[in-house]
Amino acid sequence: MTKHLITHLRHVDIAMPDLDRQVDFYRNLWGLTDVARDSGVHFLAAEGSPEQYIMRLRRDDLKRLDLVAFGAATPADVDELTSRLVKDGVTLVHEPRALDTPGGGYGVRFFDCDGRVVEVSADVGVRVHRRIEERESIPVRLSHFVVNSPTPEATVAWYVRHLGFRLTDSLALPHMGELMWFLRCNEWHHSFAVSRGPHVSFHHASFEMRGIDEYMRGTGRMLRNGVEKVWGPGRHKAGDNTFSYFLDPVGNTVEYTTELELVDEDTWHPTVFDATSEDVADQWGTANPMNEIVASRQFNDPDKGVFIAPPI
């Protein structure tokens, strides 16, 4: 039986020209904590998460995804993964080494098949975190990250083969086949997902809230502050999680969610859900309809950083 070397999602790192507006949004509206900064880079944590940070914001002339980071259990697992990647011809950004980001650790970076930078690390210091209180509408943790790919079948196959992700479920349209694949690396229904899109880009990042009340309070805060809502509030069928999608100041889609389904590795069998079913899109029937306008918001701009490693 193949050993699974990826344990969880750590953080998502993005860059943009207007750093100040991004930091203001994520810190003062979205509910993250600015824990470290250095020369145009901010590290933002979730108060309920032991991760040193769950999002890194960096000033750059281009809007881009810098990297997506996953955890491994031990440095030996990082080395074993690296050996597998090199054997399979995957291009490394850097060999396994000590990391100089908050919490340190030991990690490797490489390009996926679409040109995104992926980091896998172990031995990162645990952040002192706390219990999120009742009615406190700030993120507990980073829930999952979704990307767009014009060749999603190949992208899914790459993450399954090289990083050991498992397919949980997928969404399909009768006239075009499967359009979104939910991938897991632990008991959560999905930590990563791939969506069919016109170009390589950031689809959405999702943040787990304490419960339904906190999720709705956070959703209301975004609406009261005039943040553009993309879709929601509602409850998906695949994953059984709640959703409220909004656009951040540079046009990336971010989601408040809660109650993402947990799966049993030994008994789970993937389901292909019909995305045209109203119940699949939104079990509650409270969200605005999923249509071409909603989908196009999540296509985002083409990623300007494909096959270009970030400077830090």
From TrEMBL:
A Pfam family reported for this protein in Swiss-Prot or TrEMBL: Glyoxalase
Classification via CDD domains: BphC5-RrK37_N_like (cd08362)
Stretches assigned to the VOC domain: 8-123, 141-259
PANTHER family, per the entry: GLYOXALASE DOMAIN-CONTAINING PROTEIN 5, GLYOXALASE FAMILY PROTEIN
Protein name: Oxidoreductase
